[in-house]
Amino acid sequence: MPSRTKTVLIWIVTFFIMLIICMPGLWIILSAFRTNGEILTKPAIWIPQNLTLDNFRAIFGFGENVVGIPVASYFRNSLVISITSTALALLIGMTGGYAFARYSFPGKKPAFLWLMLSRTVPGIALSLPIFIIWSRLGIIDTKFGVILVFTAINVPFTVWLTEGFFRQVPNDLNEAAQIDGCTRWQAFWKIEFPLAKSGIASAGIFAFLTSWNEYALASQLTRSTDSKTLPVGLMDFTAQFTIDWAGMCAMAVIIIIPALILTFLVQKHLIAGLTFGGVKG
C-alpha cells in the first residue's frame, strides 16, 4: 500500500474514532440549546431545528414563573472544594512522592504498593462507611467533609505521578547544590522542584478535574446549597415523574466550560508532564 494512501486511511479512521468519542459531549452541547420537546421527539431529531438560550435563562432565573437554580452557590462550592483539595493533595502527594523517590526505608515497596492499590477501590464502594463515619463526626453536608474525601482520593495518584518525576531528576544535582552551600530545602526548592514542575502541574490538573467532576461521593455527602457542587446540582432538574433534560444539559455545559478553559491554559505543562522522561536524549 502506498505511503500516501496509508496516511489518508489512518486519518479517516482516526477521525471516525474521535467522532464516536466526542459524540456524547457534542449531543449534550446541542441539547443545551434545544427544547425538551425536540430532545424527546421520536424518531430522534439529529440536527437541531430551533436553537434557543431559554434553558440558560431558566437556570439563572430569567423569565416569567421561572425558579432559578443557585448556580452561583454551586459554582463557588465547586471552586473552593476543588482548589483546596487539589492544594492539599499536591502538598501531601508531592511530599510522599519525593520521599519514595529519594529515600530508602523499611517497608518502602509494600507501602507504595498498598498506596497504589487503595486507588483501585471505587469511590462509590466507600460511600456507606464514609457516610457513617462523617455522620458521627458531624461533618456531613459541609465543605470540610467533602474536601477531606477528595483529598484522600487524589493523594495516591499524586504520589505515584510525582514520584516518577522526582526519580527522573538526577540526585547529583541535589548533592552538588548542598556542596555549594544550599540546605536540603533550598536544594529541593531551587533545583529539583523547577525540574519536576511539569509533572507536579500535571498531577494538579488531574486532581482538580477529578474533584471538579466527582458526583457519586459528593451526592452522598452534601444536602444543602451551602455544600452542593455543580455535578450534584444536576439533580435539581429531576422531579418525581419528569426530568428536565434540556436544563440538565445546559447545566452540564456550564460545568464543562471551566474544565475546558483550565485544560487549554495549562496544556503546555500537561503535555510536557505526560511526556517527561518518555524521550531519552
Automatic annotation (TrEMBL):
Q: Which domain of life is it from?
A: Bacteria
Per the database record, which ranges form the ABC transmembrane type-1 domain? 75-266
TM helices/strands, residue ranges: 7-30, 79-100, 112-134, 146-166, 245-266
Q: Name one GO biological process term.
A: transmembrane transport
Q: Does the keyword Membrane apply?
A: yes
Query: What coarse category fits the chief subcellular location reported for this protein?
Result: membrane
Q: PROSITE patterns, per this entry? A: ABC_TM1 (PS50928)
Q: Which UniProt keywords apply?
A: Cell membrane, Membrane, Sugar transport, Transmembrane, Transmembrane helix, Transport
Q: CDD domains, from UniProt?
A: TM_PBP2
The entry's localization annotation reads: Cell membrane
Give membrane topology per the record.
Answer: Multi-pass membrane protein
Q: Which GO terms describe its cellular component?
A: plasma membrane
Q: Which family does it belong to?
A: Belongs to the binding-protein-dependent transport system permease family. MalFG subfamily.
Q: What does this protein do?
A: Part of the ABC transporter complex MalEFGK involved in maltose/maltodextrin import. Probably responsible for the translocation of the substrate across the membrane.
PANTHER family recorded: MALTOSE TRANSPORT SYSTEM PERMEASE-RELATED, MALTOSE_MALTODEXTRIN TRANSPORT SYSTEM PERMEASE PROTEIN MALG
Record's protein name: Maltose/maltodextrin transport system permease protein MalG
Give the organism the record lists. Shimia gijangensis
Q: What is the lineage of its organism?
A: Bacteria, Pseudomonadati, Pseudomonadota, Alphaproteobacteria, Rhodobacterales
